[in-house]
Fold:
Amino acid sequence: MTLPGNATYATILGDYWSQQESALQPSCILTPSTTAQIATALPILTQGQCPLAIKGQGHAPASGFANVQNGVTIDMSGLNSVAVSPGNDIVQIGAGNAWLDVYEYLNDLGLAVAGGRNGAVGVGGLTVGGGISHFSPRVGFVCDTVVNFEIVLASGEVTNANATSNSDLFRALKGGANNFGIVTRFDLQAFHQGEIWGGSLVHTIDQREAVFKAFSDIAGAKDFDENTSLVAGFIYNSSTKGWIIGNGVVYTEPVENPEVFAELLAIPRVSDSVTITNLSVLANEGKGLDPKL
Structure:
């Protein structure tokens, strides 16, 4: 446990992605490293009706999603184990992990799981919220690939929810957020995965109509290519008072300039960082990729 005025307390609050979250001041922050510690603390907190919040990697933007004012915040980052089953088909992931840590662990094994597109995102929040992945066209939402949740209930009981045990809870946790207990471990289906092609394409705002059309044609294709992942965003630069369009493009096979992106790639752009790489490099916000200006 850490209290206001402690260096660890300040570090944890400074680790949130949004200022709205970091501005909240919990009365204390619990920093468990085991499921048993959570099982000891949770019934004390619930019986006392103490306001509490669960923090994974703190990437949620809204105030109160992963922090609480004058309550108790439970920082899950100490539960950061990753283990692979003997058959390489299931990955057991501690709820406090960031997706980047999971990807880096699996890279050398030639494996992957459906997880966050940004490696800084936490495993816990994304998964209980549903979760969109680069692999979603192939395998569904991240929560669809969970085969078991280890969870601490309000009573302090540690149990598992899966297709044959606590099946109603298993279904509720697949996108039902975090109001059913504290999930301490996610067991996800793994699959073999080699290198992928991806990066970002940056266009000027005057190319928006062409970009919109390309996006629509790709997303609305009758025979959609399930290896395709595309995210478009508008970025405002307060210094130049101007807008640009950033497209995150990924093809989950090592195919250079795949045909599905031909229309988008044909539009003049100011920069790109697309290349064949691995999932962990791509998820690390493009660090290690050299933009082709």
Notes: The first helix runs from residue 7 to 13. The domain at 196-283 is CATH 3.30.70 (Alpha-Beta Plaits). Residues 286-293 have pLDDT under 50 and may be disordered. Residues 93 and 165 are 19 Å apart (CA to CA).
